[in-house]
Amino acid sequence: QVQLVESGGGLVQAGGSLSLSCAASGRTFGAYNMGWFRQAPGKERELVALINWNGGTTSYADSVKGRFTVSRDNAKNTVYLQMNSLKPEDTAVYYCAAGRGWTNVNSDYDYWGQGTQVTVSS
Known about the structure:
Blueprint: E1 3-7, E2 10-13, E3 18-25, E4 33-39, E5 46-51, E6 58-60, E7 68-73, E8 78-83, E9 92-99, E10 109-112, E11 116-121
Parallel strand pairs: 2-11
Antiparallel strand pairs: 1-3, 3-8, 4-5, 4-9, 5-6, 7-8, 9-10, 9-11
């Protein structure tokens, strides 16, 4: 069992930066690939960034490539999402999720956090 708690969301002006954290409980955190997803009002939840179990491989949505960086510290049971050059279209609730596969399919993930709101003003 893994419980996930996101933090670090907030309100920022366009062009600014935010850093999200996702703290996990449970001794098996290091066995999971971790995804950051987001869901804007009226839109489907989409994968933003993905990092494999040991942090050696990452993947990003085209819309955030070059602006967002995902990382993890398995010793601290935490995964991070550094977001730079934020745009109003990045406004959404951001979720972290833990899964065994390498996939952008929401239902493939076993555990989800409660989400944290990110709002980017123009």
